[in-house]
Design a protein that fits this description.
The protein has 162 residues and is mainly α. The chain contains 7 helices and no strands. Helix 2 packs across helix 5 and helix 3 runs antiparallel to helix 4.
Length: 162
């Protein structure tokens, strides 16, 4: 699972916990759905479905070739088996976004991600997140090593045996 998907899922879970019980307006839901599509969240979900269905295959087909053939046909990419789940996911995520932002804010966010700079940011966000995490780990390790040495020296100067 990509780091971006985990980040989005975590953010959505956080937002769901803090979201108000008030139902968003239809205008807010439309703007939020448009943002969800622009962010390509559904593409990430669709990429996970084949893995899920592949895991279910042995349980459902029970190693029977005639069932496996029909199962494969029913779960082929592009089949309608995915549609209700994708639609439900879009609506649920859109509800979270609509409850978290005003209609104007949703439109501004969607406008940014629809522009070349926003699309480029989406394309590079996984690599940027990985690079940023690595930099954070590297700097933290260097800081820990340096601070350890400094503290040991300072404590030795105070007469402590280390």
């Amino acid at each position: 699972m990509s780091r971006r998907l985990l980040t989005i899922a975590g953010a959505l879970l956080f937002l769901v916990c803090g979201a108000s019980a008030q139902t968003p307006s239809p205008e807010a839901m439309n703007a939020a759905r448009k943002l969800v599509v622009t962010l390509k969240i559904t593409d990430q979900y669709r990429a996970l479905l084949p893995q899920l269905l592949l895991q279910l295959r042995p349980v459902v087909a029970q190693d029977r070739s005639e069932i496996e053939r029909d199962y494969d046909a029913m779960t082929a990419p592009g089949s309608e088996i995915y549609a209700p789940f994708v639609a439900a996911m879009i609506d649920q995520i859109a509800t979270v976004y609509a409850a978290s932002f005003t209609v104007d804010e949703l439109r501004q966010i969607e406008g940014f991600y629809a522009q070349p700079a926003g699309r480029k940011f989406l394309e590079k966000s996984d690599a940027l997140a990985r690079a940023s995490a690595q930099i954070g780990q590297d700097v933290s390790q260097k800081a820990a090593d340096e601070l350890k040495q400094r503290l040991i020296e300072a404590l030795r100067q105070k007469g402590h045996k280390l």
